[in-house]
Amino acid sequence: MKIFQELFNQTSIMAPKRDARPFITEKDSSCPFCLANKECLESILDESWEGDELLVRIVPNRYPITSKEKAKGAHDVVIDTQHHTLHPKDFTFSHWEVLLMCIQKRWHELMQNPKIQFIQVFKNYGILAGASISHSHWQILALEEVPYSMQMKYGAYEQEGLCYLCSDLHYKEGFIVYADSAFEIWVPPIPRFPYEVWIIPRKHYQHYGELSSEEVKQLGKLIKYLLQIYHQINPHYDFNICMMSGDVKGNYNYHFYVQLVMRMGHIAGFEIATGCHILSVEPSAYAKEMKKILKGMYK
Length: 299
Ligand SMILES: [Zn+2]
Ligand SMILES: [Zn+2]
Prior knowledge:
Layout: E1 3-5, E2 11-13, E3 45-48, E4 54-60, E5 73-79, H1 93-112, E6 118-125, E7 137-143, H2 148-160, H3 169-173, E8 175-179, E9 183-187, E10 197-201, H4 213-233, E11 238-244, E12 257-263, H5 269-274, H6 283-297
One zinc ion is lined by residues 31, 33-34, 84, 135.
């Protein structure tokens, strides 16, 4: 495994052992995330809620991207339900709160390691989103170096000398779906995927570890609503959630946000060749559509 910078300002991580990971799409006795198998797993963090039901369990990834020799760091799996087929849109608000608090707790632990520079939290749900196991889960990847592509993103902030997400410019160019005192849900003017939305804290936080517990609770509520909106638009959707954070040491400036995208097809040759993404829905149109659905459900 090796992190290296490719010719085109990108970072790739070489992790050949990842190919050995299982693909489990149906409920199956071999699912390592099901409750029946939980004793088999070495746990980093367990959180129960109202009785014995295990809501969240964080375990080391059996097929990690990281290793002791090359891409150093940690690679965790967050199993966010014991029920194989329970969809995250159907988690209760309390469940979402506990889940996001657990992820933040682990974030803080990983940050204590002076070598960790960068943490990526993400969720792949469904085959089109890259999930190899259909049982709902997240991943936390902590690295001892900042991926080059992220350094480029952070560098853009430094060059501009202002924060795009704190400035009014993003209102003029993108589309607001929802806003409260803590967050806004915004559609970027040039999305890469259909129904791409960003949940942006109003405060200029560098990374996920800085959100208050009240903000974490509200974030869970908004993610749940957005997944319900996705369901209304397309009942068979796959999706990714990415927590877009600055480096944890504060060497770069960045405005933290959570990105949700619906996955309706594979990335194909044109996208691989050019980096251009093709969308079948206009961002202004889907922002309007999502706003209308949200208005009906947000109370
Ligand atoms: Zn399972
Ligand atoms: Zn900002």
